# Entry
Amino acid sequence: MRILFIRHGDPDYVNDTLTEKGHREAALLAERAEDLNLGRCFVSPLGRARDTAAYCLKKTGYTARTLDWLEEFPARLDLNKVPQLRKAYPNSRMKDGEYVPRVVWDMAPAYWTEHEEYFDCRKWRETEVCRNSDAVATYDRVTEAFDRFLADFGYVREKAHYRVEKANTDTVTFFCHFGVTCVLLSRLWNVSPFILWHSLALAPTSVTEVVTEEREEGTAYFRGLKLGDVSHLYAGKEPVSFAARFCEIFSDREHRH
# Structure
């Protein structure tokens, strides 16, 4: 089995759609759609993912089914209730004198790297951030839905691998988001999602590819073949978007800190 994770194009988050650049990126991705062999397509319910998918679907004549659990990973933390965690989120916004709830995984490196439990494939669930947010419940909801999806294709979760009930070479494509892609990869690879959230930056319209390896009959593991491929942008001479990244050097005030 083969899975493609395609991140949406350069986002207009305010209007949940794409910027002009994002539309150019999605159009260039569509030029590669037939070569990518998208197979069965699935899309997040959010506008920026749907708008990205529309280009590939029009080019190939395919249709896509919406899966609610492909939306951007929605777990939130309320810093007003846990003031001791404000040091982990130094750039948090305020409105009317209170902190605005924020995504749990976008933490300052100086905080999470000094707490080894965030690196552990099990102990991350017991971290202070997770104890004070809906991160674990949301992660379990999303990954349980993912496991049911894989079971429908013949791959049943068993401990830390997948039992093969019906081996196949089907391809499925998810048009979705950075945060949830990291969650799904962490499930496949049995690692803490915090490692992937903070160590990867999958650019808009990038393509990540994983495939099953069945080295022993009946036992499958998912191996990454491509991670954040943006060769379609290079081919079209379109600069790679900075979205998902932070400033390369602190003195760079043009990019987010």
In short: The chain has a mean pLDDT of 96. The chain has two domains: 2-74+134-235, 76-116. Residues 76-116 form one domain.
